[in-house]
Amino acid sequence: MNRWDAPMEFEDFIRSRHAALLRFAHVLTGDPHVAQDVVQEALERAGMSWRRIQRKDDPEGYVRRAIVNRHLNRIRSLRRERLVDAPPDAGYLDAEPRDTTIWNLLATLPKKQRAALVCRYYLDLSEAQTAELLGCSVGTVKSNSSRALAKLRAALPATTIGSGI
Fold first, then answer.
1. Residue 149: its pLDDT value, please?
2. What is the pLDDT of residue 86?
3. CB of 26 closer than 8 Å to CB of 94
4. Which mean pLDDT values do the consecutive 10-residue runs of the chain (165 residues) have?
5. What is the pLDDT, as a whole number, of residue 79?
6. Is 25:69 a contact under the CB 8 Å cutoff?
7. Which pLDDT score is estimated for 165?
8. Residues sharing a CB contact under 8 Å with residue 25, sequence separation 6 or more, in sequence order
9. For tag attachment on the chain, is the N or C end more exposed, with fewer CB atoms within 10 Å?
């Protein structure tokens, strides 16, 4: 098998955006290990089509969309997963502090609701941009965001009473 040499522009893209893509995937999935997997898979696919992707206006948007798709369709890929006898090398450690209460509450949301919130409030995308990224209508983004926020609001008062937040 021949080794694939990535174009310099693709290597530059990875160097400049890899950490941000990992953070996005981590917030989206709630698991740093799954985040690494979906980013790796998305970058692998993007690398093979980089020349075509680069001609479009937004290569990062393409990679984000691939990350979201990999996350939402992860169950199918897990059926083909094979276990190994040796554990992998050291994993990714998030250096940023995080509010465990919010992370735990985000983990209770369905995948599509969580994806809508992450795109809207973490990436600060508009409803139309979020709909495009998630491959759904603006109305679906609105309803998923509204339901997710309602669940979070309902759960937060019980956990933050007396904490001064």
1. 93
2. 72
3. yes
4. 73 93 93 93 90 84 92 71 66 63 88 93 92 94 95 76 44
5. 61
6. no
7. 41
8. 34, 35, 36, 38, 39, 67, 71
9. N
Closest listed residue to residue 111, CA positions, set 26, 28, 25, 38 = 28
What single string gives the DSSP state of each residue in 66-116?
HHHHHHHTHHHHHTT----SS--S------S---HHHHHHHHTS-HHHHHH
For residue 36, give both structure tokens. Answer: 């690494």
Tokens of 91: 């994993």
CA gap 8, 43 in Å, rounded? 14
Please give the Cα distance from 33 to 158 (Å, whole number).
30
d(CA 128, CA 130) in angstroms, rounded, equals 5
In 3D space, the residue among 139, 157, 158 whose CA is nearest the CA of residue 147 turns out to be: 139
Measured CA to CA in angstroms, residue 2 lies from 7, 75, 134 at distances of: 15, 31, 35
Q: Give Cα 92 to chain centroid, integer Å.
A: 15
**What residue type is 155 in one-letter code?**
A
- Nearest-CA neighbor of 16 among 56, 43, 55, 36? 43
In this structure, are residues 28 and 68 in contact, taking their beta carbons and an 8 Å threshold?
yes
